[in-house]
């Protein structure tokens, strides 16, 4: 697993074998956004310790949606450190194992990618301690606002940290070679509308569930990819490049 710095002393990316998650730091207090597949818990802990931090300071794990490569390790990690697991009410029953994963509406070119994604081991039934709604503000990152982001799955969420200009898109938007609508959507039209709404947030740093974070001219790139009109003149974007990375 790679660990890549996105924002100095604030934000790192976990690059798993398929997809990625993120670690937000408020001093010593830690919030993972997504938790990788079922085998990722120890690698996440090792990465945290490699930063000189204590995994016991993980207070919450926010799950952006109910796909196996995003929540497989969540309960193991939460159980080890007493963290709570958060997800949207529409995906919570899937994460808990009470409902099956909804079937995506695949385009022909997505089918081989989907088959490859199924090589990730199935996630175990995972508790959701707290269900979070659109507009709810979570106590990290100076106030992390939950944005219901349906289309990829019914209960997909994004997280917007306006104080820091950071947006986590989950699976709705991807950054693989270019910024684009995410794949494997259950409702492509709703996913496209979600993409437009997220682009309109004008984030300066955009973190995808698949693909490298967008750290330069992020607002303009997101608008162009989503087909959203430019914001009023006068806003000056602040950009960052991901820095070094460590292999875990």
UniProtKB/TrEMBL annotation:
Family matches, as InterPro entries: Metallo-B-lactamas, NDM-1-like, RibonucZ/Hydroxyglut_hydro
Residue ranges occupied by any Metallo-beta-lactamase domain in the UniProt entry: 18-210
SUPFAM superfamilies in the record: Metallo-hydrolase/oxidoreductase
Protein name (Swiss-Prot/TrEMBL): MBL fold metallo-hydrolase
Database matches in Pfam families: Lactamase_B
Signal peptide: none
